[in-house]
Target: Transcriptional regulator
Amino acid sequence: MAGLPVDVPVHVALHTTDVEEARAFCRKLYYAPLRIEPVGDPGRFDFSADVVELGPITVGEVGYGTDIRVSIGDLETAYHVLVPLTGVLRSRHHGAMVLADPTRAAVFRPIGHIELEWPGSCRLLSVKVDRAALERELDAALDQQVVSPLLLGASFDLIDGPGRTWVALVRLLLAELRGADGLASQPRMAARWRDLVVSGLALTVEHPYGEEPAGLQGPYRPRTVKRALDAMHAAPARAYTSRELAAIAGVGVRVLQDAFRQHVGMSPMTYLRRLRLDGVHAELTRADPGTASVSEVAYHWGFTHLGRFAGAYRARFGVSPSATLRDRS
Model:
C-alpha cells in the first residue's frame, strides 16, 4: 500500500555478566526509571537479551541467569506484556499481583509502579507497545472513543484462544527480524507484521469496551447482549437487577443469562460486578491517599455492602482495596 508507514527494524543484543552494563542496556531500550538488583547468587548473574525495535513496538527475549528484583517507575508512555518461556515471574502493579508462567502472560498499563520478582529459571518474551499505538488501534477496532490509559486486564491466557496465536506471532516476528535475509527484514513487510502485533494485542487482552469486553469471546455478539452491555457501561453504578437488564435487552432473564454465558463467558451480574471492580481499581490507583477513601470510591461505583466488596476486590486483584490506595505511586 502506498501510504503504509515504514519502520526499519533495529536489532540489538547483549550478553554480559556485568550488572551495570545490563542496567544501562535495559534503561536505554525500555524505561529510564528502572532498577535491577540481584537477590540470588551474584556470581551466577548472566544477562542475555536479543531485542528488536520496530517503530512503536520493542520485542525481545530476556533472561538474567540468577534471581533478580526489577523495579520500574511509572511507565507513562507504553503498555507492556511479559510472557515467560520458562519459569514463573511474580509481579505487583497497582495493587494487583500476577503470577505469569508459560500458560499466562502479565500485562502492564502505563500508570503506576511495577515490582518484578524474576527467578534465574525464568526467560521471557518482553513486548513493549507505545501507548498511543495501542490506544489508536483499540479505538479504531471498537469504533468508539476509549479512555486513556486503557482499563486492561492484568493477564491473559496463552494456552487457548487469541493469546496463543498472538504469542506465536510475536515469537515468529522476533525470529524473523533477528536474521538479515528473512521476509520480515523488508521494511514494508516488517510494518505489516508490526501492525499485526499491535492489532492482535488489542483483540487479545481483556478490556471493558463495547464489542469484545472479555477478550474476543466470539466474532459475533447478539444485539440483545450488546444492549445490556451498553447499559452497564453507560451507568455502571446503577443498581441493576437481572430482570431490569433483561427488560433493556428485550428478552427474558433466562435467555439473557444463557446469551451472556455463551458470548461473554459469564452472567450479566458477574460482568457488572467485574466492571465495577475494575472501575474502583482504576480510581484507587489514581487517587490521593491523603484525601480519598475506599468507602467513598466503592459507593461511587455502586457497591453498598463494603464487606462483600472488599472480599470480591481481593479475589480479583490479590490485595485489599486499602492496600491499592496506600501503595499508589
Summary: The two ends are 44 Å apart (CA to CA). Confidence is low (pLDDT under 50) at residues 1-5, 210-220.
